[in-house]
């Protein structure tokens, strides 16, 4: 310990040589004066660690995260009592080879955000840590492959290796593991590769982040991963069709597959799927061309090679598809040539569905299994070459005019001469089927043929059963046959105007509505025209008793349908609104028809009635964050606990992160504040009021706009220049965090001048932890160390978010990463304890609203939220002139 005190510059203030080191700040000892814990997180420490650290033989806890320590890490070898090590966010430069040797009780190890580390690999010594539960090493300069050692960690639940230089495939030992949260995203190019099949057997998975790598092949069958709620696979090279099993994942709340090369039918996307920028045959759900389906089955049998996926796009197989030729008149596929492509897999029976095929060339590959007998029935086939593969099974009998080449397949059976059923096998190729075969003779050949024949027979049975099951599954998600449920509603209107900075595109809407339309009272799905008569009916003719609140451009009313479903109706008059209000009305529709997310308030519809403009939203029963944070006494509600506040902050961060980087387009909210944060009965938050939203510029460029928003939340550069990037929302979010911590408003004129501006005052307090603690809202209970630590972390985040220079502020993804673990700390240990503050995997909207939106079959995007988002919808159309549109 004396050596330790000399390597820190300076050491903590009470680390004096004449003082018992067991009394030093951050040091704990047992009854024998042996050091058991060193807890010095976030102390602004500099210097290095002593090489004798592993002489603290009773050490159980080492917490040094979030300092500025540097130099080489000392070995921790043979610290057999060591259970947890936290070295995150420092400047260490290297890890010794024997660092993990003998750490037999290690449970948690975290070294993330040490960008100065020399390249290192995960060592095999780690296998001695059989009690390991969490291993976090993101942004730690790890290179090489992920070692196949994970069978040694039966208790491992969290593995985080994001933002490193890992290559190779996922290790087989992942299979059957207890890993719940797997983060391997954003490796340096080329990143991790290979297929994702091992995920199928990782049945405990909750969250999987594999985005921004080079994974290939088909999406795995995740039907056994019943706890999976978050799957991030964007920006890879995944191919093949969207599995029907993905629809059946019971807890899935967030699945991002964009920027891959997925093929086949466009999935029926709901509230959780982001499948944009792929290679689906169509841009909307619907069956592919039969020839396209057949060729995709062919590709599936050989693992959906990336070389095919890159050119096999669209719904026309005769449109420059690689290795495919068609006749010019009928546009039918006549030739498939896969020669010398190094393909592996089997020959698909779906070749038999390409009835115009004249030539099939599959030679010089690594194909296995039988030659499907269905190929013999192709009416126009003239040539088939399967030579130089590893095919097995019985050789099918082709017509006399078919040139059949199958040499150099050592496991393939013999050709039976036509007209000679009693002739022994191995007598050579038939004169009616030109080609050659490998010769074999004797009883061994006969036995092999019998065995292979039996295998082929059972293979055909299994294939037929599989096809039947697949057909049933397909029918389940196909067109609804019940005419009451399956009626299609079509709204058409003129397109496009430019609204508040984005290109307007309101397209024709085709939706399906479930249930009897007569009971829907004019509602025809999300984001469509709604009858004024309906809105008057459900709001009791806009009764004063139904008023929820008043804003700058109108009044918000509560409405209730006959089935009890509640809605919120924002009613505005164009004469009162003026041009600015009309622009905001149009902007809200423009944005909310493009984005849907669990933490963004959903727009359900709109109405134009003379000079009135009405917007219909989902109802948020607990009102605004302002009411619960600043006005809880007036409203006679309970004050917000810290658990509720940090959960609300995370919800808001996820919603804004979606707007910035995960939606179809990137948006800037520009008016983020507590009055625009609405709360549900479970006190989960949603961001509202999108009237000031602007399209975010690409890259680091800013866009100039008229100053708008609310003083106290405006970023300095925006207030000074009128130019915005997404970092203006980050600033406003930091202000909201400060309000959640202090219970004070962003601007409070009742305070002295030096304290009235919350950001300025709060950032001064951040210099000293003691002063910062004095700023905490007095209603909060801060007795326990865990809560204080959580508040401290949120305060640090608030400080970073409100940095003066935009480039010094983090993006919202970082805020989500910081806040996420703080919320998870309060996840109930038993389901019956769930009070709604933890992860909520249930739909937030009542069932009726869920049906309106879910049956539309429209698309939306969603990335890193833990909970269900509202159901996405394509924008509905409306005329260039709002006044020219009738309310229907």
Indicate the topology.
Blueprint lengths: L1 H6 L19 E3 L5 E5 L6 E2 L13 E3 L4 E5 L11 E3 L4 E4 L13 E3 L23 E3 L6 E3 L12 E3 L4 E3 L13 E3 L9 E2 L12 E3 L4 E5 L11 E3 L4 E5 L12 E3 L4 E3 L9 E2 L15 H12 L4 H4 L14 E3 L6 E5 L6 E3 L12 E3 L4 E4 L13 E3 L4 E4 L9 E3 L5 E2 L29 H35 L6 H4 L1 E4 L17 E4 L15 E2 L2 H7 L8 E5 L2 E7 L5 E8 H19 L10 E7 L2 E7 L6 H5 L12 H21 L4 E2 L8 E3 L5 E3 L6 E2 L7 E2 L11 H6 L1 E2 L2 H16 L10 H4 L1 H8 L3 H6 L10 H17 L10 H13 L22 H8 L34
Describe, in plain words, how this protein is organized in 3D.
- With 888 residues, this protein is of the alpha/beta class.
- The protein folds into five domains: 1-119, Ribonuclease Inhibitor (Leucine-rich repeat, LRR (right-handed beta-alpha superhelix), Alpha-Beta Horseshoe); 142-286, Ribonuclease Inhibitor (Leucine-rich repeat, LRR (right-handed beta-alpha superhelix), Alpha-Beta Horseshoe), CATH 3.80.10.10; 303-447, Ribonuclease Inhibitor (Leucine-rich repeat, LRR (right-handed beta-alpha superhelix)), CATH 3.80.10.10; 486-611 and 843-854, 2-Layer Sandwich (Phosphorylase Kinase, domain 1), CATH 3.30.200.20; 625-830, Transferase(Phosphotransferase) domain 1 (Transferase(Phosphotransferase), domain 1).
- It has 17 helices and 44 strands.
- The strands form eleven sheets. The chain has a twelve-stranded mixed beta sheet with strand order 1-2-4-6-8-9-11-13-15-17-19-21, with no helix packed on it. The chain has a six-stranded mixed beta sheet with strand order 33-37-38-36-35-34.
- A hairpin with a 5-residue loop joins strand 35 and strand 36.
- Helix 9 (642-662) runs antiparallel to helix 11 (727-742), helix 11 packs antiparallel against helix 15 (785-801) and helix 15 (785-801) packs antiparallel against helix 16.
- The longest helix has 35 residues, at 442-476.
- It is flat and about 100 Å long.
- Mean pLDDT is 79; it is low at 414-446, 470-527, 575-580, 826-848 and 850-888.
């Amino acid at each position: 310990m004396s050596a330790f005190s000399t390597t820190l510059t300076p050491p903590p203030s009470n680390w004096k040589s004449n003082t018992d080191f067991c009394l030093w700040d951050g040091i704990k000892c047992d009854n024998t004066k042996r050091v058991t814990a060193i807890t010095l997180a976030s102390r602004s420490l500099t210097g290095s660690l002593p090489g004798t650290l592993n002489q603290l033989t009773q050490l159980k806890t080492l917490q040094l995260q979030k300092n500025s320590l540097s130099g080489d890490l000392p070995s921790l070898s043979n610290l057999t009592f060591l259970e947890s090590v936290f070295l995150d966010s420092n400047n260490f430069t290297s890890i010794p080879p024997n660092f993990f040797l003998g750490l037999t009780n290690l449970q948690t190890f975290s070294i993330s955000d040490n960008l100065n580390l020399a390249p290192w690999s995960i060592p095999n010594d780690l296998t001695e840590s059989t009690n390991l539960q969490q291993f976090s090493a993101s942004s730690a300069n790890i290179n090489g492959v992920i070692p196949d050692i994970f069978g040694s960690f039966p208790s491992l639940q969290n593995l985080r290796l994001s933002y490193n230089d890992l290559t190779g495939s996922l290790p087989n030992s992942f299979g059957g593991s207890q890993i719940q949260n797997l983060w391997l995203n954003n490796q340096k190019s080329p990143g991790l590769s290979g297929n994702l099949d091992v995920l199928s057997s990782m049945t405990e998975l909750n969250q999987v982040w594999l985005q921004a790598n080079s994974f290939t092949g088909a999406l795995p069958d995740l039907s056994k991963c019943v706890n999976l709620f978050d799957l991030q696979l964007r920006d890879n090279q995944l191919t093949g069709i969207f599995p029907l099993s993905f629809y059946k994942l019971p807890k899935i709340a967030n699945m991002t597959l964009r920027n891959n090369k997925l093929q086949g039918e466009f999935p029926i996307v709901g509230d959780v799927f982001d499948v944009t920028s792929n290679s689906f045959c169509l841009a909307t759900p619907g069956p592919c061309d039969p020839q396209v389906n057949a060729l995709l089955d062919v590709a599936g049998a050989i693992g959906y090679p990336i070389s095919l996926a890159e050119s096999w796009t669209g719904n026309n197989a005769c449109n420059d598809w690689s290795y495919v030729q068609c006749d010019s008149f009928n546009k039918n596929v006549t030739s498939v040539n896969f020669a010398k492509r190094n393909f592996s897999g089997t020959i698909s029976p779906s070749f038999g569905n390409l009835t115009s095929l004249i030539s099939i060339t599959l030679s010089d590959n690594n194909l296995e299994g039988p030659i499907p007998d269905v190929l013999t029935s192709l009416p126009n086939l003239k040539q088939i070459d399967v030579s130089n593969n590893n095919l097995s099974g019985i050789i099918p009998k082709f017509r006399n005019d078919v040139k059949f080449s199958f040499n150099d397949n050592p496991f393939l059976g013999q050709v039976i001469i036509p007209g000679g059923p009693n002739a022994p096998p191995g007598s050579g190729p038939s004169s009616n089927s030109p080609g050659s075969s490998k010769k074999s003779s004797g009883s061994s050949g006969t036995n092999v043929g019998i065995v292979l024949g039996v295998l082929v027979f059972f293979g055909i049975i299994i294939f037929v059963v599989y096809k039947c099951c697949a057909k049933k599954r397909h029918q389940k998600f196909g067109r609804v046959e019940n005419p009451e449920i399956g009626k299609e509603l079509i709204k058409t209107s003129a397109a496009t105007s430019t609204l508040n900075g984005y290109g307007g595109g309101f397209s024709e809407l085709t939706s399906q509505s479930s249930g009897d339309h007569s009971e829907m009272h004019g509602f025809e799905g999300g984001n469509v025209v709604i009858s004024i008569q309906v809105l008057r009916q459900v709001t009791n003719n806009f009764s004063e008793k139904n008023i929820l609140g008043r804003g700058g451009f109108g009044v918000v009313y509560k409405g209730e349908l006959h089935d009890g479903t509640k809605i919120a109706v924002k009613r505005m008059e164009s004469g009162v609104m003026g041009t600015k209000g009309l622009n905001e009305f149009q902007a809200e529709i423009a944005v909310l028809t493009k984005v849907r997310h669990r933490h963004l308030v959903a727009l359900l519809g709109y109405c134009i009635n003379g000079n009135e403009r009405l917007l219909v939203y989902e109802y948020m029963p607990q009102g605004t964050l302002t009411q619960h944070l600043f006005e809880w006494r007036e409203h006679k509600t309970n004050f917000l606990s810290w658990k509720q506040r940090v959960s609300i902050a995370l919800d808001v961060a996820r919603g804004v992160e979606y707007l910035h980087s995960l939606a179809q387009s990137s948006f800037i909210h520009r008016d983020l504040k507590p009055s625009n944060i609405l709360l549900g009965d479970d006190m989960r938050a949603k961001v509202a009021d999108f009237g000031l939203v602007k399209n975010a510029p690409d890259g680091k460029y800013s866009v100039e706009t008229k100053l708008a928003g609310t003083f106290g939340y405006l970023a300095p550069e925006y207030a000074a220049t009128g130019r915005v990037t997404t970092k203006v929302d980050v600033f406003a979010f930091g202000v909201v965090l400060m309000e959640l911590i202090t219970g004070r408003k962003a601007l409070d004129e009742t305070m002295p001048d030096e304290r009235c501006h919350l950001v300025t005052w709060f950032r001064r307090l951040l210099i000293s932890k003691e002063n910062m603690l004095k700023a905490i809202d007095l209603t909060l209970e801060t007795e326990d160390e865990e809560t204080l630590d959580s508040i401290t972390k949120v305060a640090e985040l608030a400080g970073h978010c409100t940095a003066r220079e935009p480039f010094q502020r983090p993006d919202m993804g970082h805020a989500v990463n910081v806040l996420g673990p703080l919320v998870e700390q309060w996840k109930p240990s038993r389901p019956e304890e769930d009070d709604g503050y933890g992860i909520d995997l249930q739909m937030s909207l009542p069932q009726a609203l869920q049906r309106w939106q879910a049956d539309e079959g429209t698309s939306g995007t969603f990335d890193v939220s833990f909970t269900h988002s509202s159901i996405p919808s394509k924008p509905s159309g409306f005329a260039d002139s709002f006044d020219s549109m009738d309310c229907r």
